[in-house]
Amino acid sequence: MTLGVAGLGSAIFVGVGLPLPLLLGPMTGCLIAALFGAPLRDMGAFGQMMRTFLGVAIGSSVTWGLILSLPSHGATLALVPLFVLVIGAVGYPFFRKVMGFDHPTAFYSAMPGGLQDMLIFGEEAGGDVRAMSLVHATRVLVIVTAAPFFLTWAYNADLTRPPGVPFSTIPWQQIVLMVGAGLIGWKLAERIGLFGASILGPLILTAALSLAGVIHQRPPAEMIWAAQFFIGIAVGAKYSGITARELRVDVGAGVAFAVILSLLSLGFIELALSLSPAGTLDVILSFLPGGQAEMAVIAIVTGADVAFVVAHHLTRIMLVILLAPIAGRLFDRKRTR
Q1: Confidence of residue 306 (pLDDT cuts 50, 70, 90)
Q2: Sign of dihedral through CA atoms 139, 144, 149, 153?
Q3: Is the pLDDT of residue 333 over 70?
Q4: Would you say 61 and 309 are in contact if contact means Cβ atoms under 8 Å apart?
Q5: Residue 337: helix, strand or coil by DSSP?
């Protein structure tokens, strides 16, 4: 049922000519079906496997030229910790005082980290996992849906072109290497407990192979399209079983928080543009706090500097994952005293 709904959503988006039909179509189709009570599910391990293609695509963008250019991006990367701090300082009071969430739910709903990691930390702290899941899914859904239309309207970004060359034009040896790097990188990352293993593991292994001159092409368009489709399903299926109260409170809070984040992002985007020679599109996608995978997809399709964009999102997520549990415990002790 979920695949059928996602496929129908994609077909409608393609037919109408809307941007990113294989990402936004499944998201929208699954969201609408969930609101009507359809029992949707994500694709489990198979869906995670498809995400490895995105990690390979990002890793193959890592070249020695990029490595040598990183010092010139130090100013914008240095803004990321401040960006995270401001989001937390604004987000926690919003969820706690305005929306009435309990402390752990408010704290981990406000943290702009990866969805799965924030749910794990929040559950350990005693938070409402369902509420946090809906808030983060809605944040990603709103920002990822709005961003393509904004980029098309404001910057004439072309979101209709293929995200790569056709499968038939890439040597089979490169295809085998990329698929192998994706699967092996994913499983190795899982074994050592790396967050975002299905994307970061393939990214790291492919980047190493790219720098070694073994992999020298990005995955074909068909692989990127497949990754988009299953990422869209993963976001949309989170709304399965939603109740009227959850729609009003949790999804409403997620929508409001996404608007707040977008306004905060605009300020940091302006500041980053004044400090960095990077392109406008690169900076915008680096400071929009959607999901790492979803922002990477948009970067690939628009022709932005994928490695630059992902470097900023990884910095944000790593900061949140490393510091949020510590900050949460310190905050708990202060509240107890």
Answers
A1: confident
A2: positive
A3: no
A4: no
A5: coil
Q: Which residues of 181-212 are buried (b: 16+ CB within 10 A; e: fewer)?
A: bbbebbeebeeeebbbbbbbbbbbbbbebbee
Distance CA(334)–CA(337), nearest Å, equals 5
Per residue in 199-235, pLDDT tens? 788 988 998 999 898 988 888 888 888 888 988 888 8
Which among 248, 240, 252 is positioned nearest to 36, based on CA atoms? 240
Q: How far apart are CA 63 and CA 1, in angstroms?
A: 41
- Quickly tell me which residue has 């790593």 as its tokens: 318
The number of angstroms, rounded, from the C-alpha of 208 to the middle of its chain's C-alpha atoms is: 23
22, two tokens: 């294989």
Three-class SS of 189-228 = HHHCCCCCHHHHHHHHHHHHHHHCCCCCCCCCHHHHHHHH
Say which residues have a Cβ less than 8 Å from residue 302's Cβ, sequence separation at least 6.
151, 157, 158, 159, 281, 285
Nearest to 223 by CA among 174, 164, 180, 183: 164
**C-alpha triplet 277, 283, 285: angle, nearest 5°:** 155
At residue 62, the 3 state secondary structure works out as coil
| pLDDT tens for each residue of 32-87 | 998 888 898 888 889 888 888 888 887 887 778 777 776 777 888 889 999 999 99
Per residue in 150-165, pLDDT tens?
888 877 777 777 777 8
Spatial separation of the C-alpha atoms in residues 235 and 83, rounded to whole Å: 24
Choose among 231, 247, 210: nearest CA to 296: 231
pTM of the model: 0.77
23, 296 in Cβ contact below 8 A? no
Rg (CA), the chain: 19
DSSP annotation string for 159-182: -SS-SS--GGGS-HHHHHHHHHHH
Nearest to 324 by CA among 155, 168, 112: 112
